[in-house]
Amino acid sequence: SATTPGLPIHSTGKKRRIGVMTSGGDAPGMNGAVRAVVRMSIASGCEAYAIYEGYDGLVNGGDMIREMGWEDVRGFLSEGGTLIGTARCMAFMERPGRLKAAKNMIIKGIDALVICGGDGSLTGADKFRAEWPGLLKELVETGELTQEQIQPYQTLNIVGLVGSIDNDLSMTDATIGCYSSLARICEAVDSVDTTASSHQRAFVIEVMGRHCGWLALMAGVSTGADFVFLPESPPSENWEAEMCALVKEHRSKGKRKTIVIVAEGAHDQGLNKITPQHVKNLLSDKAHLDTRITTLGHVQRGGTPVAYDRMLATLQGTEAVKAVLEATPDTPSPVICVIENKIVRRPLLEAVAQTKEVANAIHAKDFARAMSLRDAEFAEYYQAYQITTKIEHAHLKLPENERMRIGIIHVGAPAGGMNAATRAAVAYCLARGHTPIALHNGFPGLIRHHSDEPLGAVREIKWIDAETWVSKGGSEIGTNRGLPSEDLETVSKVFHKHNIQALFVVGGFEAFTAVSELRKGREHYKSFKIPMVILPATISNNVPGTEYSIGSDTCLNALIQYCDACRQSASASRRRVFVIETQGGESGYIATIAGLSIGALAVYTPEEGISLKMLDKDIDHLRDVFRKDKGQNRGGKVILVNEKASKTYNVRIIADMILEAGKGKFESRHGIPGHFQQGTTPSPMDRVRATRFGVKSIQHLESFAGKTPDEIDDEPMSAAVIGIKGAKVLFSPMERVEKKETDWKLRRPKDEFWMGLKNIVDTLSGRPNYPKP
Ligand code: ATP
């Protein structure tokens, strides 16, 4: 072989050249992928080439295939669309087009391609790879190239990145761009919501997705829509009557608005298209609602990528370069996927084949199969959606003796998604026949309960109370940092008095501590021998037992918005560095992931601390960066500092040090976004995950129905934390997590999964290696 796996050098002795291309429909985050591939290639000792305008660039060659330097991708992370262009290329569909493409690749010396696009683009890429030896042979036979020219390029390496707003590829939970698109949709639906409520109107909203209902479903989950139409799961035969009945029922319970979401590819069981107009007519004529249609169209494709897409694009782009370097002639082409929180490689051909199967199954009216071919996550969201929308589920109701009185409490600072989790829990409780009970204002609320609050701190929650909470920030039932240990005796009395039979706790590290105290309190108080679950919700994402706390995504989006504004200001005045303080307590998660999402020059975390040597090296690096900056006037420079990274060096001091070192050649500003980081409305990701985990949490609690207090006490999972660990969503027993996984002094998990990502931030910003303190 002409290349040895792992080596960036070609058999010709030259550096390997890795091409990167965006193809098919554009998607927010594609630029982040291009940046990551370019910089990771260079950092690994290769050269990077951009192929402009998708396969058109490959077929036409010449100036459409150009080397990309480190500086050429500065500022790419925060730009929407694709800056290297994309196209649908007819020529590449035919062999003569691919023959030209092969010739151009060899002339340019490129033998590896990273392609970011949808299933069509990836199919084309794999076909190209399969034909490669034949194409080379033909090029020699026809005299277009010589044997010597093709000799070093016997194999072509292809790696796929899925860039698509539809999230339609099988084997991955998310595609680059889908969460940005969902964010656009949710902004729009939230806006329509307010006017719908004001006028008591109904709105039918059409969203993109020909064979894939992901956007429609997730929009439904995150906005609390009344009805959704998905291609994979058409409604029942008499859906027209059912929809009208459901909508009327919601209205009769006091709902002032109706939102119905229709995927572009929606149809009934007979594959007859369901159009927004048809749904509108039904709502107007049969349900007698003043109904309007909103078609979102290309708005859904556009705009700035959200934090998640920037992170995903960056992690997947770096993984793609690793995959290129590790490939052997026998490795099947991989596509880079994500399962829950884990970046994985999957065989490209299988992923594409499975994706096509979904469309085939829909065509064959085998909808059960279409659903089963989607990821497990999709089916779970679908169930969660159905349960949280319908009020009466006769078939879901539990027998009387299995119904529980379930307390719901918020602990700690507010975090985006707390209300969505509570709404889902309430809806699920009602569907099953449980009684959801809000414990207002955290544990201090309960402890003061006996005194004089007019309504009392313990109140049943009705469906209509919780119905509008899905998109609300803050905490509707009130949250407080206080712990049960303030007065365990009173907490126990209140639990007893109100016959609380299970507890759902939503919050951050304090919530975790609270559940730990209650669990330990079981020794003395029988009323704590009930099942309890904590759903981690904190912007700091520092709760042991999970890699993801709801609210952290909302925070990242607020933070990158702030940083983007600073960067823009910094790049307008060119020679300026912004030093920005992030929250996060003793955990550098927020700072690191925000750093990854904006391309920070340096990130300082409490885990690493800050030493004078680090500052010195980073200031040297800054001098270097400004020296090389030829005034492209893109992307100002940002340094992120966690609030607890150092007792000595705060953002003000660091900014002053930079100013002095800059000697007039560059200057600095500092910024402290503070509580702005809690965000306003929760991000769609926090809303949908809160909904899914809220339902799962109550399912876990109800599995203890009918057990005696002592049986519950004996069962380690009766006090549990729900979370994401790697590729799985799971419950972990509190006792183990408390003892084995928690750093109580620093209030964070002992093992922080994201520590490995820190190196990627440094590599991609070109930050020099320095001795770790
Ligand atoms: P989107 O998510 O927007 O549908 P996509 O990548 O699936 O993205 P397509 O239009 O299907 O979009 O494909 C993009 C380009 O990939 C095509 O214009 C064509 O150049 C190439 N391509 C697609 N399918 C094939 C194929 N079977 N053989 C060769 N090339 C293909």
Structure description:
This protein is of the alpha/beta class and 773 residues long. Helices cover 42% and strands 16% of the residues. The protein is built from 26 helices and 25 strands. Strands 12, 13, 14, 15, 16, 17, 22 and 23 form an eight-stranded mixed β-sheet that branches. A hairpin with a 2-residue loop joins strand 10 and strand 11. Helix 3 packs across helix 4 and helix 10 (307-326) crosses helix 20 (589-598). The radius of gyration is 28 Å and the shape is globular. The relative contact order is 0.10. The model has no long low-confidence stretch (mean pLDDT 93). The site of adenosine-5'-triphosphate (ATP) has 18 residues, from helix 4. Pathway: Carbohydrate degradation; glycolysis; D-glyceraldehyde 3-phosphate and glycerone phosphate from D-glucose: step 3/4. This is ATP-dependent 6-phosphofructokinase. Belongs to the phosphofructokinase type A (PFKA) family. ATP-dependent PFK group I subfamily. Eukaryotic two domain clade 'E' sub-subfamily. One of its GO terms (cellular component) is mitochondrion. Residues 1-390 are annotated as: N-terminal catalytic PFK domain 1.
